[in-house]
């Protein structure tokens, strides 16, 4: 399921996401891009689990951080870029499901620093189950070699 609202940021986020080898390796896909909100979905894969067969915390953190950073991209100038400078993840429940959803939302936009919140969900036959939350901070990068929007 995809839900994309068009905007100046849409193509830029799609192109940037497509260039991320990590997202490709994980099998992740963008499923929503709108002003201040991005969602990424990921199918279950045994290669992404830890020793107990649940989704690895590093994979959860990666999905949340990526969704939150792209949510921030919806608010910045096209000539700017972003770097995550801090995040904290709370793992709330084991990642057991056929599919996972990572939603990033901008909490506090700013011209230099953007604060985000993320939520990770396990999606199965019943209602989605909250498995993780994240708060992150991105720094807006301008005029720095190697960091294009």
Summarize it.
With about 150 residues, the protein is α+β, with helices and mostly antiparallel strands. The chain is built from 3 helices and 7 strands, in the order E-H-H-E-E-H-E-E-E-E. It starts with a strand and ends in an 8-residue tail after the last strand.
Question: What is the CATH superfamily?
Answer: Hotdog Thioesterase
Mean pLDDT: 93
Instruction: Return the CATH architecture.
Output: Roll
Look up the CATH topology: Thiol Ester Dehydrase, Chain A
| Amount of beta strand | 35-45%
**Run of helices and strands:** EHHEEHEEEE
CA gyration radius, whole angstroms:
15 Å
CATH class: Alpha Beta
Overall form: globular
Strand order of the largest sheet: 1-2-3-5-6-7-4
The description of the largest β-sheet is: 7 strands, mixed
Number of domains: 1
Note the gap between the termini. 27 Å
Based on secondary structure, the structural category is alpha+beta
The counted number of beta strands is 7
Low-confidence stretches: none
Number of helices: 3
Protein name: Medium/long-chain acyl-CoA thioesterase YigI
EC number: 3.1.2.20
Family: Belongs to the YigI thioesterase family.
Keywords: Hydrolase
């Amino acid at each position: 399921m995809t839900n994309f609202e068009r905007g100046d940021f849409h193509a830029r986020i799609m192109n940037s996401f497509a260039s991320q080898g990590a997202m490709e390796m994980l099998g992740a896909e963008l499923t929503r891009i709108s002003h201040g909100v991005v969602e990424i979905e990921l199918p279950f894969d045994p290669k992404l689990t830890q020793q107990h067969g649940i989704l690895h915390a590093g994979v959860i953190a990666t999905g949340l951080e990526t969704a939150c950073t792209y949510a921030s991209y919806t608010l910045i100038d096209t000539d700017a870029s972003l770097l995550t400078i801090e995040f904290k993840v709370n793992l709330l429940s084991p990642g057991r499901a056929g599919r996972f959803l990572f939603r990033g939302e901008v909490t506090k936009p700013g011209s230099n620093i953007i604060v985000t919140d993320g939520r990770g969900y396990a999606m199965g036959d019943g209602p989605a189950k909250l498995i993780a939350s994240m708060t992150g901070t991105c720094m807006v990068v301008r005029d720095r070699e190697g960091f294009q929007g």
